[in-house]
Amino acid sequence: MRYDVDVVAVPATAAIVIPGPAPLGELALRLRHLHELAAAQGLVPAGRPMARFHDREWPPPAGPVAYDVLLPVVPDPDDSVPDRVGEATGTWLPLHHVLETVHYGPHEAMHDAYAALFEACAAVGYTPSGPVTEVYERGPADGVAPQEYVTRLRLPYAR
User: Fold this and answer.
1) What's the rounded Cα separation, in Å, for the pair 26 and 54?
2) What residues form DSSP beta bridges with 31?
3) Which whole number is the average pLDDT over 5-25?
4) Which range of residues forms the domain containing residue 59?
């Protein structure tokens, strides 16, 4: 599969985060729990759920993996986010630029998408400057088959 890679500006976003590490097999469960925590606090989701992978290895190593799960939320009228939401923390993700590609299909088949991001980064002389974020545009929580998953992969960079 061919992957187009674009430079994208990601706007500042209020979010709640559950930090890792955790087994990769618990990702969907952790995202579901994050939604439950948001609902219990009266927070309204403002975007698709995400995972931020601190290890740049794909596929991830066996055992616990260094990743966080995030859910964008609508901030309070004063632009604040609660400090704590159960075991999650509230935060603002700053405006930043990323290299982005979109993967269609099962999560287990994203190796080429990751490779495309890092190859594009090197080709333009950039350096990765943070964790890769996977944005789950369509996935298991949407009740679709793995072949219908849509995942945005975002790599922050420095020049």
Assistant:
1) 16
2) none
3) 95
4) 6-158
